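ugh ok fine here u go
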Amino acid sequence: MSHPAAGELFDLHADGEPPADPFVLAGQWLPADDDPDRPRVTLATTGEDGSPNARTVLLSAFDESGFAFHTASTSRKVAELAADPRAGMVLLWPDHSRQLLVRGDVVPDGADQLAAAWAARSAYLRRLARCNTDELARLPLAERRAGWTATADQPPGQAASWVGYRLQPREITFWAAAPDTASRRLQYTRDGDGWRWSHRAG
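structure:
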């Protein structure tokens, strides 16, 4: 079977064998880490009551060590990951033609990666990381605005609550629509040190 040429985007609907390594295909689909327009992904965790819980986060970075996201240490997702360090992630392309789904184990991100993600955040998001608390949310609007304004004079270093995680996949699924046939999934499952893949109904 033929393989896609280097740099060529593999078509999930075309005949031929896909890349043996799903990170190769994910690298074709995802923007470079220095792209300021970071993808928004839906992150699903297990709630402390055992029910699923999901929210949208920025995908901070991606490489073979996993899919990184960052948040406040006081957030609900951090408590949920402490209780059950597994998660799922879904990225839907704006034109609804593709989806990337990831399932696996979640580990803390390294200090260097944490600093890089902080530096890449916009000024607005850095201010948000410093002051977006339940206590502020309960205040009247005028006091919330005053609290927000006060963060403009804070030092530029990382917020004390800033933490990061990396979703290390056990399963990566690529989904693609097509105008002339049924949608199709390409599912990779971790198999020892490698991966096995199969096509699935979309």
